[in-house]
Amino acid sequence: MRHYFNDLPKTALTAGYWLFVAYLLLPLTLMMSMSFKDANFIAFPIQDWTLRWYGVVLQDRQFLDAVAYSAFIAFATTICATVIGVWIALVVANEGIWGRAAIFALACLPAVVPGLINAISMRIFIRVIDLPTGTAAIILAHTVHAVPFVVIMALTRLRSMPRNLTDAARDLGADPFIAFVRVTIPYLMPALLGGMIFCVLTSIDDFVRTFFLGGYKPTLPMLIFAKVQGGMSPQINAMATIVLIATALIGLYAEYLTRRARK
């Protein structure tokens, strides 16, 4: 009896974990299954199965343009956020700089500000600096949102970096820039890979900021939102399934690269 009560918390924790997994996966499974329905509407049961909706989506020029546009924004956002995030992490990691805690807090602030508030403030900001809505404004907003994640990952990696690595590089004749490129950046690479992939995924998935700052050209979330306004259909489910599979593959590949870089 005592053994039974000792195992009870572990059993409850395991059951709670699998309930949570089911809570996450069940809606996704239903969404993906509807993309195979041979009908123009969404409803159960699924009597006939088909792949034609994926063919329709992959031939949809509007969808392909939105994917390319979102990918371009994500790429530009990742480059900008990585450069700025690494620079802030280096500043915060430097013990000789005053106010490091305040700099770190300000850098991480966009991660805790609600997306709607962030989008409204960015909309006001671009009007003040006379920047039109569109690609540049979206990249600016996405970069501000992505920088904190790069800062946290890079700073965590920097704090575990032995100081004698850069000291050895300088003793061998390397100037600070060469030591940074040849020693610091390779050491930071596992964290940078994870941060960059995270920037890509958050940028592609960002709807609120894009809605407030976007122009006439829709990103992928904006396109799906516009199509949903006309009613749900298996074509929308096929789009969402393609995006889900692509982002999952990107995340798994990022995990693989990160593990390999750490080794």
UniProtKB/TrEMBL annotation:
Residue ranges of domain ABC transmembrane type-1 in the record: 67-254
Localization per record: Cell membrane
A UniProt-annotated Pfam family: BPD_transp_1
One BP term from GO: transmembrane transport
Keywords on record: Cell membrane, Membrane, Transmembrane, Transmembrane helix, Transport
Membrane topology field: Multi-pass membrane protein
Transmembrane segments: 12-32, 66-90, 102-126, 138-158, 179-204, 236-254
Alphabetized SUPFAM superfamilies for the sequence: MetI-like
InterPro entries: Bact_Polyamine_Transport (IPR051789), MetI-like (IPR000515), MetI-like_sf (IPR035906)
One GO CC term, this protein: plasma membrane
UniProt keyword Membrane, yes or no: yes
Gene3D superfamilies: MetI-like
Family per record: Belongs to the binding-protein-dependent transport system permease family. CysTW subfamily.
Protein name, per record: Spermidine/putrescine transport system permease protein
